[in-house]
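BUG: 3D viewer hangs when loading the predicted structure for this chain

Environment: internal workstation, default settings.
Expected: structure renders.
Actual: progress bar stalls at 90%.

Input used:
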Amino acid sequence: MRRPTGQNLYLGAVLLVSAAVAGYLCFVHGSDAELGAQVRNPRTLADIPFDGSKAYGYLQQLCDLGSRVSGSPGMVKQQALLTEHFTKLGAQVERQEFRVRHPQTGQAVPMANLIVHWHPKRAERLLLAAHYDTRPFPDRDPKNPRGLFVGANDGASGAALLMELGRSMPGLERSYGVDFVLFDGEELVFGENDEYFLGAKHFAQTYAAQPPGYRYRSGVLLDMVGDASLRVLLEPTSMRYAPGVTRSVWDVARRLGVREFVPQLMNVGVNDDHVALNELGGIPTCDIIDFDYPYWHTAGDIAARCSALSLAKVGWVVLEWAKSNPKP
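Structure tokens produced before the viewer hung:
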């Protein structure tokens, strides 16, 4: 993902977003008194009914594959691993294949979004998404910007969280279904002029142009959710396009007492896969992202910088959100 250039997000939407956040903060502060003793902050894995240790184990497993750049041997291995994992849990896994032009060589790069269907016969559905490719190099690394990038937080954390969330999906007793989507080509980029979010754009355009026999009522994007020093702020683009969805996620976190979800607006919005889902696909989607991560796009983005407890907290919030009959 990348930040937008300058402050352009705010030029057309700052008043709308600020008003939405101000109204939400009034609601939050007014509701805390009603919660009373229910407001708490789970401090250990034992306090959370979501297995962060397993999610962290999946994160390590993905990182052990090494680089997982789109079209690479590492990506092929990851696709096989994820397909086997979700199929064994009872999901239907669909490969949405497409090709793009490599930004350097011009050769065709085979790509595949993985769409994981839970309860596929249900016409109303939720979308939980993450990208699962890694950046070609740790280009922001001060010592070795052309070294190995394994993308523990930026890439593996979202995919690993979905792997663990999948264990709860067969028993989701609701009238709607859930799809996980793992986006390829989020950052097959070698320079700032290269195109980002290829998988999300392809998915959203296909969904709009060739409507399936179901409808996504809302969505959540998971990106960089494993930081050991987790602090998730309200992302401005999410508040602009999907304020209801965003508020509903932070409301669940508040009820659970997961204080790492902070009802405070980030200083600047993030261009991420959720932009295509909102703009091209018409799917109200928010981004759960902790962008204050010192190892972003560096060789230091390894499993040791991530936390099972952080994964447990985000996973718990998302699971309870999915159970809560969320609507836009």
